[in-house]
Amino acid sequence: MGGSREGDLGAIRRPRRDRRTSGAPPFGRSASAGRWEPFAGAVVLSVVIATLANVTTPTAPSGPGATPGSGSDPRRELGADLRRWAAGGDGAVGAVGIGVVRVLERHGFGSVESGQLLAGTSGGDVSGLLYRGALDDTARPLVTSVAGGTARVEQAHVAETPAVAAGLACAGGATLLGHTLPADAASALGEALEAARPVALLATVDGAHALVLTGPELDDVHGSLGDATTQDEAVTAARGLLRRGATATEQVTAAGTDVLVDLWVPVPSVVVVGEGALGEALHGQARLLGWTSRTVTGLDEARAAVQAFTDADVVVLLDHDPAFDAMLLDGLRHGRGFLGALGSRRTQSARRERLLAAGVTESGLEQIHGPVGLDLGARTPAETAVSIVAQVIALRAGRSASALAASGGRIGG
C-alpha cells in the first residue's frame, strides 16, 4: 500500500422450501441492502443510510494482523462499539471522542460494495472495515486522529499484490473522509446498527455538522446539519433513496449543496410461492447473493409474508392458482417489495384480466413483474433463476439492465 496525504476538499470530483433459509454475506466482502461515490462543492454532505439484516455473518478484521474470516456479524459489533463509546463506558455520554472514516471516491479495486465504514475513538479503539482491511494503513490512523476533533481528507492507494491478498480484484485508490461524530448521534447510529434497523448518517464534508436518521422510514432525526434548508432537502433525498430498497451510493444536490449518499438497506428476503425445480434454483441464487429465502405453499402464509414486506423483499409466484391473486392484491395495496409472477403469456393475460376485474389499474398492473425475469434467453430452471434475480438487482439499483459496454455510467454501484 502506498502512503497517504491530506486532500483538497475542493478538488474532490463529483462524480422456504420447508421454510429453509439461506444466510447473508460477511461485512468484509459486503452485501446490497451495503458504495461511496465522489462529490464536489465548497460544502458537501455525506449521507450514510444503513440497514442490516438480522443475520450472523463472518467477522471482518478488527485488530493488527487480523484477516477476514470467522465470527459474528461485524456490523452489529460496530454498532455495539459505537454505543459503548458514546456512553464513555461508565455512563458519561461523550466521555471519549468518536471519529468515522468513509470513502468519498474510489478508482480500481474491481467491484466493491457500498457501506464502507470505519469508526474509532481518540483513545485508539477501532471498529469496522474499509475494503476488507486493504486501506488500514491510512484509515486506522486517520480515524483515531479525527476522533480528536479535526476533520481531514486523505488519499489511500493500494498496490496489486496487497489488494488481491485482501480479496479485492485489483489495485486501486480511494479518497477518505474522516470526521468526528457527536456522542448522541453515535449512540443512535450504534443502536440501529446493533439491532439491524435502518439508519442514516449525514455529515458536511468539513466535519462541522452531523446527524443520524433512524426509524423504519428514517423519520427520527438526531443532530443537525446547521442549515435548515440544506438539511430538509438532504433528508428528503435520503428517505427517497431508501424507498428504492437497494444499497447504493449516489450524489444528490440539497439547496445547491452536493450531497454524497451512502445507502445500506436490508438484505433481501425472497419468498417463493410454490415448489419445483425453479424454486430450488431461486434458493441457490439467493444463497449465492447472501439473501435469505424460503418457500411457502399455502395462500394464508403467502399473504402474511407479503403483508409484512419491506422495500427490499421479493416474492416470486410460481403457482398458477387464481387464488393467489389475493396475495398480489395485498402486495399492491402494501406498496412495498418486488412482486414477480411466473407463467406463459396466456397465463399472464388471464391473470391480468382477473386483476383488472378486481379493480386494479393499469399503473397498478405495472407493479407486477410478469412474466418475471429479464430476457436472457433462459432455458433451464437455473438460467431462469438468474434472469429473475438479475431483474431484482437492476430494479433495486435503478439500472436499465443493458450491457455495460453500451452504457456510459459508473461500473458497479
TrEMBL record:
Gene3D superfamilies: NAD(P)-binding Rossmann-like Domain (3.40.50.720). Residues 270-392 form the XdhC Rossmann domain. Residues 56-72 have a biased composition (Low complexity). It comes from Pseudonocardia sediminis. Residues 1-32, 56-77 are annotated as: Disordered. InterPro entries: MoCofactor_Util/Proc (IPR052698), XdhC_Rossmann_dom (IPR027051). It comes from the Bacteria. It holds the Pfam family XdhC_C. This is Xanthine dehydrogenase accessory factor.
